[in-house]
Amino acid sequence: VVEGKAPKALLKAQKLANLLDTAVKLPFIPIRIGLDSIVGLIPGAGDALMLFVSLRIVWLGKSLGMPKALIAQMVKNSAIDFGLGFIPFVGDIVDIFYKANQKNVRIMERWWISENKHEVDEVTQKALSEWSAE
After folding, report:
1. pLDDT higher than 60, residue 45
2. Is the N or the C terminus of the chain less surrounded, counting Cβ atoms within 10 Å?
């Protein structure tokens, strides 16, 4: 932990997941979609391309040293998202709500915090003490 900041791989995964799952707010309805939902409308190729990009998030998790069981869970989330894309129309609608990339980043975040809790708590206490002293 460098000054209480998340590692670059986690930050990249968060940005990518937001782009893929929640980058665009739909007008008149309180739903956000991302490139995964839009590109996934292209039969076959769109879902395959989005699986490839989704696996980039999994790779970033692996690069952080996440346990194999969590990596397997992330791969499963991506595979479910990919499989849903093959169901005409219904799969596209379900895909809007499933958000596998966000799920995978949440797994990464929970793991990273659990691994770095002591350092994060120290940085937080230091910041709180500085704020209280002002």
Report:
1. yes
2. C
